[in-house]
Amino acid sequence: MENKLGRTLPEDVMTKYGYKPFETTDLGNPTVERTSHKVRISTGQDKVTADLEKVVKENVKDGMTISFHHHFRNGDFTFNKVMKIIMDLGIKDLTIAPSSLTGAMNDVAIEAIKMGTITNITTSGMRGELGDFISHGALENPVVFRSHGGRARAIEDGEVKIDVAFLGVPNSDSCGNANGMIGESAFGSLGYALMDANYANKVVLLTDNLVDYPNTPASIKQTQVDYVVEVDQVGDPDKIGSGATRFTTDPKNLKIASLVSDVITNSSYFKEGFSFQTGSGGAALAVTRYLKNAMLSQNIHASFGLGGITKPMVDLMNEGLIGKLMDVQDFDKAAANSMKENINQQEIDASWYADAANKGAMVDQLDVSILSALEIDTNYNVNVLTGSDGIIRGAVGGHQDAATAKLTIICAPLVRGRIPSIVKSADTVITPGNSIDVLVTERGIAVNPNRKDILEQLENVPGINLYTIDELAEKAEQLVGKEEELQHTDKTVGLVEYRDGSIIDTIKEIKD
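RE: above sequence
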């Protein structure tokens, strides 16, 4: 079968999992019913333990779904601690449902798959050896990839039912009141973990910093927590600003960031009280620093910034150029440290941030979003999940969610090495082309033909060189030649959901 983007979907897999093909980005105003969870009644006097193995043994059984968060990013220790115990106990057939899988988790995840401990995965993304492993068909069942908002929706609607959530926190009291802001392992917002804490049948906190009761402010509350496990070290916060969230010094990326700023400041959306989000990726993160100069020179202030929060966004807030930071995740230590100092940096959960099936998410109020891409095709469909070789090496993240902004800008180099970023057909569609308004490369800018208003605003701006996206694709082809068609087997290794739970694309096993 095909969806509305013409992507071929395997009918047997779609039927087996009860999925519908993607139809539209206009999700309308349906009425949905939220799920609930089981509660183990407790007085709170018996929650603290140092015996993680006992907690795992008594609460994790074959066939369960367990979850983790990724706020520590490459500094996460919780996943490996828990999974090694699970493997030693011989527990099998687990579904893991982390908010995302980071490089720190790869080796243990691969070992657990080989042992039959993990047989299903639902997540936002994966990279490195694990992405390569999955792309070559190592997992029997396809990984389900969801956006951050899509994960929140699936948990709230009961599509993902978490039996036990293991959540690393930098502090907790004896009853489970915890936040992400205080302690040597502080990482800032607990935005993704808050979904698990609210909906999992059992919640296990791991912490290296047990503090006096009552611990405030409490992002995760004692009413949600079953166990508090003391560990030597819960994670390394120095590694939250690595990988896709590392700031760029590359001249090409900086030029792209400067051009993105020019597009924004010459659009009708650059006005007093505008709002914006920057995604991960070097050029996207760098835009904030260029926007600052324009905001100062034109005396324009932003109402709020959203998403993964960075030091440049914190600087804008501290200098009075932005009113609020709505913080679902922090991309560096400076942003994490800022949360406890400034009341205007508001922690939000993933549902408030981006769930398409609630009474109004923050992304619905965005004026501008600046997002990256591994590739974008000539229909403006964007891929942020698989590389040019077909290997899973990214994450859906908040890409689909933030693309609902009034002005959505994709920034990408025309080519990466010998690999074109603009292609005739994206290997994996994550965000549909009708959500994308402008593509910015270092060699030219393309405006979606659907946005004639933006084209008129940019066509006479000095320094902005406009092309059609087909012309930019031709430029890329002239530099690196024609793209080679990837070879796949018939096995489906990944299902990519759109925000409403429909399937926007699938990932096939790569054929070497």
